[in-house]
Design brief:
The protein is built from three helices and no strands. It is an all-alpha fold and 89 residues long. The protein starts with a helix and ends with a helix.
């Protein structure tokens, strides 16, 4: 019984950490692509990477009760999603 509980908790933690690491990687890769002129800041892909990356960081930050990066990334995601709406209009 203990083994099953440990396995379930380990899988959950892996999912949580994967979401957080996705967020970190998405934002850093988006920034690198823009910095090396491979994407424009007004591109849909750039803004999607920023928005979903920010949400990944929001998720893991609040899960770990690290509110400062969580709040920062809520704002980051809002900015990205406003930019997406403007791109699509």
């Amino acid at each position: 019984m203990l083994h099953l509980k440990f396995n379930h908790m380990t899988k959950q933690k892996l999912i949580h950490e994967t979401i957080g690491w996705y967020g970190t990687c998405a934002i850093v890769i988006a920034y690198a692509l823009v910095s090396f002129n491979l994407l424009s800041t007004s591109s849909f892909i750039y803004q999607i990477m920023n928005g979903t990356g920010a949400l990944g960081i929001v998720y893991i930050s609040f899960k770990k009760k690290a509110y400062q990066p969580g709040v920062l990334n809520v704002i980051w995601a809002i900015i990205a999603f406003i930019a997406i709406i403007r791109i699509l209009m």
